[in-house]
Each structure stands twice: as structure tokens, then as C-alpha cells.
Amino acid sequence: MTSATTMPFALAAEHRERLMRIAREVSFGAGTRLFEEGRRADRFWIVRTGTVALDLHVPGRRAPVIESLGQGELVGWSWHFPPYVWQLGAEAMTTVRAYEFDAVAVRAMCADDPGFGRAIAVWVGRVLAHRLHAARTRLLDLYGPYGGDGRP
């Protein structure tokens, strides 16, 4: 797990401060589903404490965990791209405290200020690229013919 506070794609201080003005503090108990794949993506979170698991629906199997997210990390990116539908699921693995953001409000802020909008788009895009790589790696580990080490 890599913290967004140390990732090179964390938001610049000025944009982070602006985003935090509309943050709402929330908490989730262990085992709480934050969202389900295929449902409407209308909010997102930044983890303050605890761990959130991202999972992927696989018909006939238990949803594999793609990545675990912790302090400072963005939970949810589907809110940023039409049709605003979750591409993964998420569950609190421990008690989670997080900042919650209303997606419609953030998209409006992005539309009103192109500089802010670009910063958010780059941030979310980099998180998305990281998550896709993590998902690919995890799925190869789970379902590849030779497992994760590349040996028969």
C-alpha cells in the first residue's frame, strides 16, 4: 500500500485546501460496503484512518481484492468520468474514518475553475492509472496460468 501523501500525484496544497473546504467527516465500521460495482458513483473519499479494500466482481467466485487503501489515499475515481458508475466495489476492512466529498459539487468546482479542474483531472487520472496497473497485477496473480512469478 502506498500513501497518497507520499505519492508523486497528490494534489498541490492550494488545490487540496480548496477541496477540503467541502469535505465531510464520515466513518464506516469494518465490513461496511462503501459502494458496489455498477451502481451510481456520486461521492468519493480520502481515507484518514483504517483500510479499504477495492474488489472486482467475478461471476461464480468470491470478489478478489484488487488493492488495499489506507491513510491519505483516494477511494473512488468513477465519480469523475461519465456515466458516473462504479467500476469496482469497496469495503471497509477495518474501522475507517474518511473525508467524504460530493461528486456533483466537485465537478461543479472543476467546471468553474479550469486550473482546479485540470489539477483534479490529473490527480484522478494518475490514481486511475495506478489502480489499473494494480488490478492487472493482482488478476494475473490470481488467474494467470503460472501465478505471479512467471514460472510454470
UniProtKB/TrEMBL annotation:
The lineage of its organism: Bacteria, Bacillati, Actinomycetota, Actinomycetes, Kitasatosporales. This is Cyclic nucleotide-binding domain-containing protein. InterPro entries: cNMP-bd_dom, cNMP-bd_dom_sf, RmlC-like_jellyroll. Gene3D superfamilies: Jelly Rolls. It comes from the Bacteria. Residues 7-76 form the Cyclic nucleotide-binding domain. Pfam families: cNMP_binding.
